[in-house]
Specification:
The chain has about 110 residues and is of the alpha+beta class. It is built from 3 helices and 7 strands; from the N terminus they run αββββαβββα.
Length: about 110
């Protein structure tokens, strides 16, 4: 279960203050996932406006900050197709895990 929680948590800023992803983005440099808010906070700390030095792999990634329809700032990263496939596989694994847990719980309740 801990590995499932780790897959759903953002570690970009601090590993001890992990939190569940909020509008996650896949970093094109290394395929790690991070939240919009954490990426923006990282840009502020690095005093950059459109280039993130990745804390995971030290590579740089171009970032475009855009305003959404509610006036919130959102990150737009250049796509990385290999990383996108890895994220899709992780989501499928998480989905299968949750389905298995639900099926197991249903079988247990039917036994009572």
């Amino acid at each position: 279960m801990d590995s499932l929680i780790e897959k759903l948590c953002c570690f970009l800023i601090e590993k001890k203050n992990r939190h569940f992803f909020i509008n996650p983005k896949l970093l094109p440099c290394c395929g790690q996932t991070a939240c919009d808010k954490c990426i923006i906070q990282c840009l502020v700390v690095q005093q950059k406006t459109n280039l993130l030095i990745c804390p995971f792999c030290n590579a740089s990634s171009g970032i475009e900050l855009i305003n959404d329809e509610r006036g919130n700032i959102e990150c737009k990263l250049k796509p990385n197709h290999d990383a996108s496939r890895a994220l899709e596989k992780n989501l499928i694994d998480i989905n299968n895990f949750l389905i298995n847990k639900m099926e197991s719980a249903i079988k247990q309740t039917e036994g009572f």
